[in-house]
Amino acid sequence: MYFIFATFALLIYFYSTSLLFFLLLWYNFFGDFMNVIIKPKKSINGKFLIPSDKSISHRAVMLGSIANGRTEIENFLESADCLATIDCFRKMGINIFFENKKLIVEGKGLHGLKPPSSNLDVKNSGTTMRLISGILSGQNFDVEITGDESIKKRPMDRIITPLTKMGADIKGKSSKFAPLKIKPSPLNGINYELPVKSAQVKSAILFASLYANGQTMVIEPSPTRDHTEIMLEAFGADIKKIGTKIIISPIGELIAQKITVPSDFSSAAYFIAMALVLENSHIVLENIGVNPTRIGLIHALCEMGADINILNNRKVCGEMVADIEVKSSKLRGIKIGGDIIPIMIDEIPIFAVIALFANGKTIIENAEELMVKESNRIFAMVTELKKMGANIEATPDGMIISGTHTSLKGANLESYGDHRIAMSLAVAGMKADSEIIIKNADCVDVSFPDFFKKIELGN
């Protein structure tokens, strides 16, 4: 009996220690990948290469897929979001591959897409879901588009409404959310005044208009990023802009192009922030896309007194590109709202961090769009920065930030699975009095896969 009991106890011991061993092994391999430690940093200096533009990379794959011929995309962003776009078009029969460091898209024309054998999964990419819906509304096959849990909470009625007005048969869960089901239906051109300042909604309509009978006019309340218009024109679309009106007529075909993607201004924003708030810093960011509809952050920061210079302006594939020089600066609080918000909407989280170190109060208004991004970015930034001791309050459409912080406190922080929240908190952590931990920080892979490596190594 004693022998049996001893054997049984020994088995339990070995089972429990083995289980503990494998749990520790799992944590060592995956725990650090999900949670990132950021230590305080004194300064940042030198030249930096920033990843390619996410918005332009998405659009180049989409238009290349429905153009005739071989589109070559140089400097394509290999992030999770952009790879999701590639996967969707591969499922619809488009041959997409890398050759000599360029992404090759062998387009089959406006009507060359094939029915996918399974649902299209956009993962976490709202850009993919909204833009591709415009293209799929003009196809002759049924398709369902889905994504991760975050995507299923984001409002899609803003594209469902105008596409339905064009004649599209597109339906979402509760008439508002993904997954979206699209069936073949003839499209007609419409005149549509955007109720929200959204480049994604505008782009969905413009893509659908390629398949419509008659002219389509989109009227913007104020300018939003215009990468779609620039690229449509490059691919041969019949498109023109008159004031706030964008007018497009259907044509028989789009022609494949050679596209060079500049570096992403939104990704550059985190390095701009580091250089401004860390003392004795001086950096140059090379080959950054400085499209006027993207650089609202620069205008806001210059109003705050930032030492920023735009150098070597040039045009590449229809897009303005430049180098950006930034030096640490003494900043003052300002009030922003109105037309500047749409052209800096993705940069408002990092702008909030910068404002913590400005003299006086900064007020952000008319930014309610932040509440329907990958997370509620107003709630996320206010909640997490308060954990670090920041004097920041949420308002119904923005934030009120009291500056003059010399440093913040170390804390355990949540990313909310949102890449822009994670990167903004990382910059805040550099001005903390001790290290911070950001949970689920691997979400940065959707736009800036090696972000943490770059800020750690300083290049």
Structure in a nutshell:
This protein has 459 residues and is of the alpha/beta class. Helix content is 34%, strand content 26%. The chain folds into two domains: 31-52 and 262-457, UDP-n-acetylglucosamine1-carboxyvinyl-transferase, Chain (Alpha-beta prism); 54-260, Enolpyruvate transferase domain (UDP-n-acetylglucosamine1-carboxyvinyl-transferase, Chain).
Q: Can you identify the CATH superfamily of the largest domain?
A: Enolpyruvate transferase domain
State the separation between the terminal residues, measured CA to CA. Answer: 67 Å
The CATH topology of the largest domain is what? Answer: UDP-n-acetylglucosamine1-carboxyvinyl-transferase, Chain
**CATH class category of the largest domain:** Alpha Beta
Radius of gyration: 24 Å
What number of domains? 2
**Structural class, from helix and strand content?**
alpha/beta
Low-confidence runs (pLDDT<50, min 5 residues)? 1-32
* Biggest sheet details: 4 strands, mixed
Helical amount? 25-40%
Number of helices: 13
Report strand %: 25-35%
Count of strand segments: 25
CATH-level-2 architecture of the largest domain: Alpha-beta prism
Arithmetic mean of pLDDT:
92
